């Protein structure tokens, strides 16, 4: 089987799988994809799928969250009692690795959603926090039913992207995600080869 690669989501980097409390069917599958870009890397690429991912204890609400490898995919799912917003216990799943976000870097992954993401009744929210401290502090990059966006959280509030959004993935559709950042904290999101 072809080795799937992903740059380890390192220190304070994590996947935030947060869904509305009314939509317990929200499921996320993340699959590491081989990175074929000719980029000089300071850290070696590693397959992060089988790392010791765990839910941040501060984000546990109920017992229905899922954080398990299934059929080669990292399956992340929040409990129905997890919220979406800071302070409402959004489900946060953390990779145990470390990384200095004061230096340039990137990571790649492939994801697919179990929901259609066409409206409030079949939507989910998924994303990655860069510089995660708590659900109230960090740079969130992800999507909800309105599409892909970013939000800078400081004390639970902060600016967010308010322009035209790239659509969230359709049900079962794979999306190749590339998140890159610079030492001076500029971030670029690329979806299926298109910078958004």
Can you lay out the helices and strands and say which pair or pack?
Layout: E1 14-18, E2 28-31, E3 54-55, E4 66-70, E5 73-77, E6 92-94, E7 105-113, E8 125-134, E9 137-144, E10 147-153, E11 174-181, E12 187-191, E13 194-195
Antiparallel strand pairs: 1-6, 1-8, 2-5, 2-7, 3-6, 4-5, 7-11, 8-9, 9-10, 11-12, 12-13
Keywords: Receptor, Signal
Signal peptide: 1-32
InterPro entries: GH101_N
State which percent range the strand residues make up: 35-45%
CATH architecture classification = Sandwich
What's the N-to-C terminus distance? Answer: 32 Å
Beta strands, count: 13
The whole-number mean of residue pLDDT values reads: 78
Instruction: Output the structural class.
Output: mainly beta
Q: Quick one: overall form?
A: globular
Largest sheet: 7 strands, antiparallel
The CATH class, by name, is Mainly Beta
CATH topology, by name, is: Jelly Rolls
Number of helices: 0
User: Are there runs of 5+ residues with pLDDT below 50, and where?
Assistant: 1-44
Tally of domains? 1
Q: List the helices and strands in order.
A: EEEEEEEEEEEEE
Helical coverage, percent range: under 10%
Give the strand order, joined by hyphens, for the main sheet: 4-5-2-7-11-12-13
Task: Describe the structure using short key phrases.
37% strand, mainly beta, signal, Jelly Rolls, GH101_N, 196 residues, disordered N terminus, seven-stranded antiparallel β-sheet, TonB-dependent receptor, globular, 13 strands
Notes on the structure:
The chain has about 200 residues and is mainly β. The protein has a single domain (about 15-195), classed as Jelly Rolls (Sandwich). It is about 0% helix and about 35% strand. It contains no helices and 13 strands. The protein has strands spanning about 15-20, 30, 55, 65-70, 75, 90-95, 105-115, 125-135, 135-145, 145-155, 175-180, 185-190, 195. The strands form two sheets. It has a seven-stranded antiparallel β-sheet with strand order 4-5-2-7-11-12-13, with no helix packed on it. It has a six-stranded antiparallel β-sheet with strand order 3-6-1-8-9-10, with no helix packed on it. The model is unreliable at about 1-45 (pLDDT under 50). This is TonB-dependent receptor. InterPro entries: GH101_N. Keywords: Receptor, Signal.
């Amino acid at each position: 089987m072809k080795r799937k690669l992903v740059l380890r989501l390192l220190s304070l980097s994590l996947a935030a799988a947060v869904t509305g409390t009314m939509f317990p069917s929200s499921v996320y599958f993340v699959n590491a994809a081989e990175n074929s870009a000719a980029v000089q890397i300071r850290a070696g690429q590693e397959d992060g799928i089988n790392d010791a991912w765990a839910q941040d204890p501060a984000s546990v609400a109920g017992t229905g969250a899922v954080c398990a490898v299934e059929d080669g995919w990292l399956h992340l799912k929040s409990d129905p009692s997890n919220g979406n917003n800071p302070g409402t216990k959004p489900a946060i799943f953390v990779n145990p690795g470390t990384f200095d976000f004061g230096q340039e870097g990137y990571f790649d992954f492939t994801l697919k959603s179990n929901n259609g993401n066409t409206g409030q009744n079949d939507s989910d929210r998924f994303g990655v926090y860069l510089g995660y401290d708590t659900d109230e502090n960090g740079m969130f990059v992800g999507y909800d039913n309105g599409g892909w966006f970013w939000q800078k959280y400081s004390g639970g509030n902060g600016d967010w992207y308010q322009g035209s959004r790239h659509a969230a993935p359709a049900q079962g559709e794979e999306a190749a995600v590339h998140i890159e950042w610079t030492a001076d904290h500029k971030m670029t999101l690329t979806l299926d080869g298109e910078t958004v």
